[in-house]
Design brief:
The structure is a homotetramer.
Chain A (H helix, E strand, L loop, with lengths): L3 E6 L3 H11 L4 E7 L3 H9 L4 E3 L2 H7 L4 E4 L3 H13 L3 E4 L7 H14 L3 E3 L7 H11 L6 E9 L6 H7 L2 H4 L1 H12 L3 E9 L4 H5 L5 E8 L4 E7 L7 E8 L2 E5 L8 E4 L2 E4 L6 H4 L1 H17 L7 H20 L3 E2 L14
Parallel strand pairs in A: 1-2, 1-4, 2-3, 4-5, 5-6, 7-10
Antiparallel strand pairs in A: 7-11, 8-9, 8-15, 9-10, 11-12, 13-14
Helix pairs in contact in A: 1-12, 4-5, 5-13, 6-9, 9-13
């Protein structure tokens, strides 16, 4: 079988992970990479990538390419996807496509016109824990679904400079949970009520964001989901999900460093959760990419498409509006909603 | 030491539990009991209770009494507490005092005037799991508190005839969770947002109630609590709590029938949670009563007083209003709120 | 139904537990008790026992008695059982009947002649954990049984004065595990290999005993059991069992104080096991007695009879011989074995 | 830094794992490989190995080599190690070096003379669970060590043809547990008592082996270890360890497929252990090799040397003798013991 030729745009932390994972796969070749920084260019060259450039356009021009993986800063995503799509390249793009709903719709329209396969990097969908829960739910193990509960807490807040660009908690962090809320029970969200506070660090409040949140989602069939978030869990990355239904309940727990149990006169001690997403989702990043490749090879739908990105963005924007106005917000209100960027 | 003389009004399921527990305590005597039904009267006589009557007034007149335990139907609570308080008897009353806020305030005013010690039967406060979590939280084990999560699901819905009188899910079931939300972090609630649905049994909807709910509480300091309820958890009584804070998280799990773990080629199996409140809170009922007795003997405050009942009722009424109007409701709005009884 | 009339000989720690449990049962009456110490006599009188004496003979003569519960020191057991049996009283006797195999056989012969119902107080058989494991094993949940693993560690060593009289670790502590090894898979032991050491306290070695042991039992069908013991587990009473078979494995874990889980940057903490047998087996003591009463009322076999005591004693004696001679010992060798008392 | 040049002898299941792991390491190059089978040769060529041969001698002659990894059949190990050592190559050899004690001593003498670094593939030493337990034990977390408990059960028996060559259960399977028993508490074994049976498959008994075993090890300081083995655990690969000491106990549990918990009216279900060593020890194989490479680069001792192989073999031979003669066997008896190969 002909090997798919991959190019990577952006070799930051996530870009390097995708590069390393792609290099271990037998059915693809990484033929090009781009990054403005020399350190990243050297990294790619050392790994044997033949064409390494400092601009996206140069990379596309450097050799024959089938698929582009976009891991560059968020504000380049939409442009890069457009350029690649117009040249007929398939695109794997880290989330989000863009923080502006209008721009996202524009890009998705173009993607549809070109017929390329766009995959959005919702890595948690490929985590064995979430997959197992979804599998049990869809097999009917818990009957009809009534409630989803998602706990998602980071081990520490990002720098404020990041938050100012990211769109804030709902758009850079909760957006993953919004996606899982849709994914895990295969339902669409109709209404959002978000409540939040600045409890971790007042600097986060100063830039108009919150660091602690509770969000109630109502699906179109009237069932509900609850998400709780914190930017700082002292004990590590807390990623749990629970689905309750008419015939039972299924949940997935955190992945711990190891299974040891120590018992002394002082108490019984176990390990903490894996520190952050790089550790917790290391395998998920591999599966995500190999599942995407499989969908390219087999002509089957990608496991996380542009609409998935769009819906999560809408829920995020509705959450921002809900928090600002302290009222439940319908997703349909978001269509006319233009300029939400942050909370203030 | 002089033994306190107890009388019990109402010998249904809970009344019998209190009677049996009191009979095992060395520092009290059960001197009287009342119940309109002969079966219950026989039960008390067989246990050696000397004065057994069919009316509350007859019971109070039958002998010298220090303390009255009220386990009769809800609509008698307020009247019985008043009668007993006027005669200077201390009162242990099962929750709720009444479904009408106005009536509760009236009774509590009288209680205050008489100086008797009124205890409300919030049994969960005495469960070893909730007590342990509260103790760790108050010792600062998790630092400043940010989030409370309470899961409270019954194994099966009560008959609709009960629901019609009870005030509905928020007032007969969630009211315990409202109390735990206040108790576990020692904070007052300021605002409520409730979302609910009829997912278990449409008959419950027909009488104007819901059977599944998600409630977001905001405390006066801006921190939050989430409660999720269902009238029917197929796997038994689900009673969990989690408190998240600046330095960590503490949670308490369900109590299982036993600790066995069975591993076969089919999977790994464990026991389910204890079936319902009689099993789960058997020890809590004992501790509740002995703690009350201790507060009577030592002249210390009762561990769950009239105001605790009042606050939980207010949160319940605010939840009803929130659900009806689909908006967050401040507790202060409830003061002028007159006639909420059910959802329709 | 006529209520069975009970008398208790010996009101030490265990005797008081049995007395309190009997007093809570509706179908029996405690009519007499004996103990040489005044404190214990007062305890019984305070609980309403009508006839309280200081000798066994006086107690038997004091009133009409159906059943005698023997909780006096071990060296009185055999004599008291004989006296009671000769008078036709049923007997519940704490283990062991005696440390001398000859004497035990003598007493059991008499018991058989008189036709009374003798129950030996192997309380662990009535623990919900061990019962659940046995039930699953006997239902075939793990197929044919291959291996039993018993962990049994006390939180602290008894005084040396106790050890000198008790017969040592194998006869006062492991004897419970020998019984569980027979009970849990319903098989007889054929051979024993015991290995031990003095690791906790050298004083225990000075009186000829060990404090740490590993015992391999071989059942008559060639399958095996392993027991490990320590006199001192820093983290509390460690009582676990595991049965492995052709179709799977089942195990029971320790009972913890509560189910809390605390997560901080320092690690994840849980509660320790319940401290010792009084806490862990509180419910088992009740079930043990009510099951015995039920067998008396229904004329069914007692759930732990004289032969159960005899077999465990034999395994204990074989363990002593095995340890002394550092070789596996067949149980049949024990028939000719006369005078083992301790290890030196 | 100069990259170490590796050659692999034997590209069966384990050989391929080592090859793939080496190819992902930046500080080594795989320059040669050998295997008599064409499929394996093609595998190596496809992975970019330049020199692929069908004999060990040809491989050594094909290019410049620093380190040889031996994964060929057991009966070639000793010869290959000798050839490689004489040529000054470092050697990583899968266990065991040989089933004959005499031959092992011979090879180790040669290794010592040549000064090459021989590492034995005791992969479990590199498992995060066992490492964590060892780390806690060596830090004194449980005080003085009293007891080690190792549970080691395979998901299914190997073909009888394998067993006939492998030396049987004690030499092909328990040998890993013997190594862990030494490793985890850093102590030497003095005496062995082994008990076994044929309970899984009578065919195993026909070739003179057992499939179920219980082994008691006594360390030179009088403390003890217990190992239990089965060739067939219906629920998967069961690999647990527990160490008990004067100040506490530490244990490591099985690694499960995922952390899901499903609760229905039928019970509560979790995932089973990872199926077998390839899954459970996938990470350990990587760490094992990178730790070996580190010791080569830094000139530090290898983490599992020839003596570790020798000691485990001795314990295995003592176990065979113990089982045959049904008595405890001292390790010092094994020096004169010549011809044990299997149990019959």
């Amino acid at each position: 079988m002909k090997k798919l030729k991959f190019a990577l745009a952006g070799l930051g932390r996530i870009g390097k992970i995708h590069l390393d994972n792609l290099l271990q796969m037998n059915n693809v070749r990484v033929v090009a990479a781009m990054d403005p920084f020399e350190e990243s260019q050297v990294y790619a060259k050392d790994k044997g990538v033949a064409n390494v450039t400092s601009t996206f356009e140069d990379m596309l021009a450097s050799t024959d390419i089938d698929v582009v993986v976009i891991c560059s800063p968020t504000d380049t995503h939409a442009d890069y996807v457009e350029i690649a799509a117009k040249k007929g390249k398939h695109v794997f793009c880290e989330k989000p496509l863009d923080l502006s709903l209008e721009r996202v719709v524009e890009v998705l329209d173009l993607v549809e016109d070109t017929g390329i396969k766009l995959m959005i990097g919702f890595n948690r969908r490929f985590d064995k824990e979430f997959k197992k829960v979804k599998a049990l739910v869809s097999q009917g193990a818990i009957g009809e679904h009534h409630l989803v509960k998602i706990t998602s807490r980071d081990p520490g807040a990002p720098p404020v400079s990041y938050i100012e660009k990211s769109g804030g908690l709902f758009l850079d962090m909760t957006i993953h949970d919004f996606d899982i809320a849709r994914f895990i029970v295969d339902k669409e969200v109709e209404e959002v009520y978000a409540k939040g506070a600045v409890l971790v660090d007042s600097v986060i409040g100063d830039v108009g964001d919150i660091d602690t949140a509770v969000i109630t989602l109502t699906y179109t069939d009237g069932t509900m989901a609850i998400i709780d978030n914190s930017r700082e869990a002292a004990y590590g990355y807390d990623q749990r999900v629970e689905v309750f239904g008419s015939k039972g309940m299924v949940k997935a727990e955190n992945n711990l460093h190891d299974s040891h149990q120590l018992f002394t006169s002082q108490g019984s001690q176990r390990s903490l959760p894996l520190y952050f997403f790089l550790e917790r989702y290391a395998e998920a990043y591999k599966t995500e990419m190999s599942d995407y490749i499989q969908s390219l090879e087999n002509g089957t739908p990608v496991p996380a498409n542009g609409n998935d990105g769009l819906q999560s963005l809408k829920i995020g924007l509705a959450s921002i509006m809900s928090l600002q106005e302290n009222r439940p917000v319908k997703l349909e209100e978001i269509n006319q909603f233009q300029s939400i960027k942050m909370l203030k």
